[in-house]
Amino acid sequence: MMEVPILVQKKMCVLYANHYKLSEADTYEELPEGVKQMFLGMEYTDICAPLIYHDRNVKEHSWPQIARRYLLPQTTVFRVEGKFVKNLSENGKVNGALVGK
Residue 22 and residue 14: Cα distance in Å, rounded? Predict the structure, then answer.
């Protein structure tokens, strides 16, 4: 898999934190330290999973659009979204957080 630039990773961390209402930061540097620490233990695809789900199922973006946005191959995007949906359907939670649209 290709290496995702650190600036893109940080942007996705901010989007994730805002999506789950963990922060209202505009930049990675503005995130609370506890939130930054949480991201240190997460894979890039785990950070992107709820964002990919939201882009596909709420915003109705195409798979190619999503793949370009997250700098991931389409096959990875399919897998990440599928795993997220499976976890969501099993318990309504992913990584312990309730997921809503």
Answer: 9
